[in-house]
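In the previous chapter we treated chains in isolation. Here, by contrast, the input contains two separate entities that must be folded as one system, with a combined length of 555 residues.
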Amino acid sequence: MKLIDIASVIRSKNSGPYELTFDVIFKDFETYGKVKAAQAVSKEKFCALYGIPETDVFHLVYFDPAKAVKITIRRPIPSGALGETDVYGAQQHAPLMGMEIEI
Amino acid sequence: MEELKVLSPTAILGYGFPEQSFKEGMRRHPDVIACDAGSTDPGPYYLGAGYSFTDNNAVKRDLSIMIPAALEEGIPLMIGTAGGCGARPHVELTVDIIREIAREQHLHFKMAVIDAEFEKDFIKEELRKGNVTPLGPAPELTEESVDECIHIVGQMGEEPYMKALEMGAQVILAGRSYDPCEFSALAISKGFPKALAIHMGKILECAAITALPGSGSDCMLGTLRKDSFVVEPLNPERKCTTLSVAAHSLYEKSNPYELPGPGGAIDLHKTTFTQLSDSQVEVRGTEFVPTEDYYVKLEGVRRVGYRTISPAATHDPVMISQIDEVIRGVRSRVEDNFNMKDRRDIWLDFKVYGKKGVMHMFPETPESSSDELLIIIEAVAPTQEEANTLCSFARSTMLHYGYEGRISTAGNLAFPFSPSDCRMGEVFEFNVYHLLRVADPCEPFPIHLLEL
């Protein structure tokens, strides 16, 4: 299955001008528990989807109170720099929706 | 004091709120009204240009309700990161709005204005002393990059607000601030635990974004006690749930367990969220971990040049199949015509929506395909005139470019507008995002008391 099938929120946003952060909030605690146990959302998979090196991932944190996983990465360019196409970083989540999950 | 109530009318000053929700908030007799007025989200432009991403009339509307309500109730009103970015011009434009309201409504009060803009010489001196370090992935700061800055601001903590309260301010208008400060300052001055006061501020600064359904333009109330706090929306159509409140710890943060700020971080590892009623959530257990030294986050921008853009589209399948070649050809024609191959101060770009638009910053992600493309031609140059010239020339060259297999020989582009080109003005980029070690949390942020 894909992440979009088991998540109620998948979003991206700047965390300051030099970082991008992605949040996935799962539909229920049971699914979240399985994903966490299998570490089904992982650095490797994320980096493969976005074509970035693993050294660019600053945090990948499972956050139990919100049944969520958060991934924070180096922003490829600082927000608003020349070449920008998403100043707020709010539309970088689409590839993550298609992440293949095996649990 | 066993309990302290904080009213947060809206997520950003100027985003508005229903008067009914605000009245409900005042009916609960809050101890302070607090509001965040800024963000770096809208990008570097606003700090450089010295004006706000919010609209002055909308800011005036919000303040013209908040100020008289606070004065009537005899409680302070605290506004942080005035004017969107909190440098001097942003604070001044908000001071002007407040003066206008005071005049129109015949209000008299003491207002503290807290400055958060730093002089370049001061930053250079601190840099030489080794007190400035990059924050996360930001590059090292040099004296040259400080000299290039238009404005440099520092995020104050709650301490300057507390000092302004001691000075008897009824309204506090502060420059760049760490978001939770205006919400936590009164509580911390009254001896409530810092961890809970800051965590509550972190939630309240986004107002009803934390509720379900979420809204950046509706009111929230926080009630702080010695061992816990409760947050609730003030519009009966919204609810706070343990999930909506817990999930908010993720929003725009790098790591939901550790939220760093001036003087230390709040730690959420032991935090619990409990549903008290269908719209109230109680939070406990958050801890504060102080840092050995006190650090202030600095933000600064430099001017890159001036921008002109031209949005243009195509629906021609042959043109679409040749688009990379067309762009290469147009670029080389422009560079040749103006002899600009070796110029480092010029930027010519073609953003191709329908192929690689939104996801442009991740070149390895798959390209989109579409039977239409929107191309935004962009030129950035040292003067507006030069940017206009380059954009105009690139646009006319692309319009008539003879690509391989072309059969639509009248023109390659569909322009949605006349004029087709748009002058965007100054262009800025962030060049300071650093931590400054300070000896005293108040000293870098001078307070001026005004009698209105």
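Chain A has one domain: 3-98. Chain A touches chain B at residues 9, 13-19, 21, 23, 25, 49-52, 58-59, 61, 63, 65-68, 70, 72, 74-88, 91-92, 94-95 (CB under 8 Å). Compare these points with the single-chain example from earlier in the chapter.
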